[in-house]
């Protein structure tokens, strides 16, 4: 995909369907329960109606898409483990042995592991969408070319298109890539105009010394590359990862296909921020699952204007937070589709009192 082709696609993303949102709201209001009693579970389905253009739902087919990629900045000692762990987890994703696989089984959710750019040979059982064998070390220059960033976004859009054609109507986002809290913190710091120290956490458990190296590497990367905060593609290509770029495409693809996309934690939240900066109308496809324990996660959600349905201190990755929210969708749908109405129960409908 070229940048011109990407821009043409983004021009086709329409605003939310407010008539469908109103219809879903009216349906909730007719059910025999306190008005708005299910809180965000109600507005979540109303937002989904505005995205899909219909107040009727069938979300029985769902998938978590786990994008795997390696990051050259790991050479700066910003992570607790080396790049070999990215590959090891990808292999276990293919064998359906990881944490998200167990949670997805409970949530009746398919797992789709994807190689966006890991070091080494392709992993059997992992879909090959690799852009390159990992990004470059952004302390020495751009993590990737602008064309590679566009290509990765295009792969994400194509994945959603394919899943939608196969009947999937709910997509959870996941990722696996050693060093990707470093790339996410770097991108978020620039896009939100915040100090690097405020936007950077310990990832998978860095010591004080490791955290200092991580902050220093991000500061050097920003100084070296001078990303333009008004140009999301510039920031993404200079400081991001192939997983973030691919996830950005997943959110854009959801907006194009009318499929809700569940943001997992900090990393996918940053990808969603990139998508919305590229195309504000794409925000309609972004659904926040939880607020990660990473320091900047809440700031990213606030910038997106999204409220999570789970606050549980999760910071495992792989899409576990997004998948954990799926049973809440099922519960909301169970009430939405099965609860009796005021009329059926012979009850006077509640009316707003304020």
Automatic annotation (TrEMBL):
Its EC number is 2.4.2.21. InterPro entries: Nict_dMeBzImd_PRibTrfase, Nict_dMeBzImd_PRibTrfase_bact, Nict_dMeBzImd_PRibTrfase_N, Nict_dMeBzImd_PRibTrfase_sf. It catalyses: 5,6-dimethylbenzimidazole + nicotinate beta-D-ribonucleotide = alpha-ribazole 5'-phosphate + nicotinate + H(+). Keywords: Cobalamin biosynthesis, Glycosyltransferase, Transferase. Pathway: Nucleoside biosynthesis; alpha-ribazole biosynthesis; alpha-ribazole from 5,6-dimethylbenzimidazole: step 1/2. It is an enzyme of class 2 (transferase). Gene3D superfamilies: 1.10.1610.10, 3.40.50.10210. Pfam families: DBI_PRT. CDD domains: DMB-PRT_CobT. GO terms for molecular function: nicotinate-nucleotide-dimethylbenzimidazole phosphoribosyltransferase activity. Catalyzes the synthesis of alpha-ribazole-5'-phosphate from nicotinate mononucleotide (NAMN) and 5,6-dimethylbenzimidazole (DMB). NCBIfam families: cobT_DBIPRT, PRK00105.1. Belongs to the CobT family. This is Nicotinate-nucleotide--dimethylbenzimidazole phosphoribosyltransferase.
């Amino acid at each position: 995909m070229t940048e011109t082709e990407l821009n043409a696609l983004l021009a086709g993303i329409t605003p939310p369907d407010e008539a469908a949102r109103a219809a879903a709201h009216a349906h909730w209001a007719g059910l025999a329960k306190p008005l708005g009693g299910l809180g965000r579970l109600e507005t979540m389905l109303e937002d989904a109606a505005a995205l899909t253009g219909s107040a009727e739902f069938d979300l029985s087919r769902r998938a978590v898409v786990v994008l795997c990629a390696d990051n050259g900045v790991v050479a700066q000692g910003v992570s607790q483990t080396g790049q070999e762990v990215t590959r090891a987890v990808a292999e276990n994703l293919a064998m359906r042995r990881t944490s998200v696989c167990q949670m997805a089984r409970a949530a009746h959710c398919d797992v789709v592991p994807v190689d966006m750019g890991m070091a080494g040979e392709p992993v059997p059982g992992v879909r090959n969408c690799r852009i390159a064998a990992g990004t470059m070390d952004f302390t020495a220059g751009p993590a990737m070319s602008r064309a590679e960033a566009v290509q990765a976004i295009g792969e994400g859009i194509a994945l959603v298109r394919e899943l939608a054609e196969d009947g999937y109507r709910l997509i959870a986002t996941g990722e696996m890539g050693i060093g990707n809290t470093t790339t996410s913190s770097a991108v978020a710091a620039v896009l939100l105009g915040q100090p690097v120290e405020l936007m950077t956490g310990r990832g998978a458990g860095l010591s004080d010394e490791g955290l200092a190296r991580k902050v220093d590497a991000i500061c050097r990367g920003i100084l070296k590359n001078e990303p333009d905060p008004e140009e999301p593609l510039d920031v993404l290509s200079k400081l991001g990862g192939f997983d973030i770029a691919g996830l950005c495409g997943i959110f854009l693809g959801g907006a194009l296909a009318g499929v809700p996309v569940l943001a997992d934690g900090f990393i996918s939240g940053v990808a969603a921020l990139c998508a919305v900066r590229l195309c504000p109308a794409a925000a309609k496809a972004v659904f926040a699952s939880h607020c990660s324990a990473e320091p900047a996660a809440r700031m990213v959600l606030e910038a997106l204007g999204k409220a999570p349905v789970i606050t549980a201190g999760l910071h495992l990755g792989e899409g576990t937070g997004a998948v954990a929210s799926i049973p809440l969708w099922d519960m909301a749908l169970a009430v939405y589709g099965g609860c009796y109405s005021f009329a059926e129960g012979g009850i006077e409908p509640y009316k707003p009192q304020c």
